Amino acid sequence: MVLHPPVHSRPSGRKRFNVLGALHATTLQVVTITNDTYSNSCSVANIAVEFSDLPITLVMNNARYQRCRFVMDLATALGIELLFLPSYSPNLNLIERLWKFIKKKCLYSEYYEVFTDFKQAIVGCIAKTDGQYKQELTNLLTLKFQTFENVPL
User: Fold this and answer.
1) pTM here?
2) Distance in angstroms (rounded) separating the CA atoms of residues 79 and 12
3) Quick one: which of 43, 53, 115, 134 could link to 39 by a disulfide (CB 3.0–4.6 Å)?
């Protein structure tokens, strides 16, 4: 199970649409919580309930609110492993690959004049991850990473 803090996607203007997502690393099940306001460290706890019967590793990119005492204490209390990625390494986090895929499918070269259409495009695209896009995502969200051994730096 991989959890990730919210992706902030915005059309032009001041409106915001936050998508907090969890991705099961082997089944590729996607669970999301969305809102139009702000996400913070409390938002992460809400999504953990969905997979409370599984071991959870929370993969984070070192944002300030991810390292706060509340998150650290909550993770310890819930038995959640925290994994902080090195800077500039989004490809090590499977959910980052999913967000890039979602943006490519529904946001690139698209203009949504109405904010509700913008939100629906994202939600609709995420809904297709278990059906129409399943095969593409199976190839994209692989757990096989290239490793290097004995490489001089």
Assistant:
1) 0.75
2) 40
3) 43
Given the candidates 3.30.420.10, 3.30.310.50, 1.20.120.1200, 3.40.50.300, the CATH classification of the domain at 2-140 is 3.30.420.10
Token pair 């609709």: residue: 124
CB 33 within 8 A of CB 47: yes
pLDDT digits (tens, 9 = 90+) for 1-30: 444 444 445 444 578 888 888 888 888 888
Q: Which residue has the tokens 């702000």?
A: 38
CA dist., res. 133 & res. 20, Å (int): 20
pLDDT tens-digit readout, 37-85:
766 666 666 666 677 777 888 888 777 777 888 888 888 888 889 888 8
Interacting residues of 87 by C-beta distance below 8 A, sequence separation 6+: 61, 62
The answer to whether residues 40 and 71 touch, using CB atoms and an 8 Å cutoff, is no
Locate 123 and state its tokens: 């939600």
Q: Which ranges of the chain does DSSP label H, i.e. alpha helix?
A: 41-48, 69-78, 94-106, 115-127, 134-140
